[in-house]
Amino acid sequence: MERSPAVRLTRETLYKLYRSSQKIAALTCYDATFATLLENAGVDILLVGDSLGNVVQGHTDTLSVTLDEMAYHTRCVARGTSRAFIMADMPFGTSQISPQETFRNAARLMAAGAQMVKIEGGRHMVDTVDFLTCRGIPVCAHIGLMPQSVHQLGGYRLQGRSEIEAERLLEDAALLQQAGAAMLVMELIPAVLAEQITQQLAIPTIGIGAGAACAGQVLVLHDMLGIYPGTSPRFVKNFMLGAESVQTAVRNYVSAVKSGQFPASEHRF
Ligand SMILES: Nc1nc(=O)c2c([nH]1)NC[C@@H]1CN(c3ccc(C(=O)N[C@@H](CCC(=O)O)C(=O)O)cc3)CN21
Ligand SMILES: CC(C)C(=O)C(=O)O
Ligand SMILES: [Mg+2]
């Protein structure tokens, strides 16, 4: 039975895709026009990413993006959609102090139209994930390369290379799921590790630079349209090449994710 069009795609619908082994297609989105386009092209999750610091604001990292800015872009995306699932990033500095403060900040993004917030961090975010989840805010955890920690990590580098690092990420994933995380984004980790983590978990994993075994994939919109200046990371594919319109490019991305064709071996580590 089709739900009424007024009802937004729910987390249960995403879980249904996951349980029936259908891949979840996600893209970042920052405004109403693209929100409508992506929704009509079949994108399951619109992520209002703090990557807007790079692609919208022209910064070289995501660190200066504010909660007000995230709420503004979340409102723009929400107005452009009627059924897409909207996830919003908690920007740098809004989830680090305490679970209480994080809840207050996350509530702003939920009020702006998000159905779930995403928080960068491993085991040290367990209390926060539990606090939010118990109080009605679904959380997507984000491990591996955490761009908000770029100065700690020493660059946008592949994570989980050594056995010790890989073991730690496996444990982080299990702890975050146990704390109530509804989904898990894994960024820039070896494909075999992402596969192991995906198999270990009962919640959907969404990969970016994490191979094809994840339950879903996400890319930055401007990267997959080939319009972000500079050289792209290895995990990016330009879907505008050979496509006659933006709509077609996005549709091709959705089918490539659903069929498991993307990411191919040249996009993995
Ligand atoms: N436009 C855009 N796309 C993104 O994917 C993105 C942003 N902005 N802003 C926030 C972070 C930064 N990200 C990045 C940035 C650079 C690399 C990168 O250059 N990676 C190289 C080296 C990997 C390695 O071998 O260690 C690569 O080839 O993928 C990866 C992720 C991901 N996020
Ligand atoms: C790349 C995705 C996962 C993200 O966090 C963002 O766009 O900010
Ligand atoms: Mg982000």
Give the low-pLDDT segments.
Answer: none
Nearest-angstrom radius of gyration? 17 Å
Provide the structure class: alpha/beta
Count of discrete structural domains: 1
Give the overall silhouette.
Answer: globular
| Helical residue percent band | 25-40%
Largest sheet: 8 strands, parallel, barrel
How far do the termini sit from each other?
A: 40 Å
Mean pLDDT: 96
Number of helices: 11
What is the topology, as strand order, of the major beta sheet? 1-2-3-4-5-6-7-8
CATH architecture classification: Alpha-Beta Barrel
Bound molecules: 5,10-methenyl-6,7,8-trihydrofolic acid, 3-methyl-2-oxobutanoic acid, magnesium ion
The ordered H/E elements are HEHEHHEHEHEHHEHEEHH
- CATH class category: Alpha Beta
Remind me, CATH topology? Answer: TIM Barrel
Give the tally of β-strands: 8
Task: Supply the CATH superfamily name.
Answer: Phosphoenolpyruvate-binding domains
